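Handout, page 2. Input:
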Amino acid sequence: MDETALINLLVFLAIGAVAGWIAGQLMKGRSFGLVTNMIVGIIGSFIGGYLFSSFINNGGLIGSIATATLGAIVLLVLVKLLKKI
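Output:
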């Protein structure tokens, strides 16, 4: 793995972690703890990228965090709904 790929991976993980933390703060009562919310944020980055990429396109760092946060919120809501079943 070259240096650029490693840096991109670390930035992606950091954005996901921040997004998970933000989603956990916004979704009080739906959070699962700091570490789990960070993992949810990383997974939410994929979900947000898939769902919202046409709305938030090329938004830089802020756009990436917003997209990942929205994806993490969607994931937290889905997990809460599945826990009720």
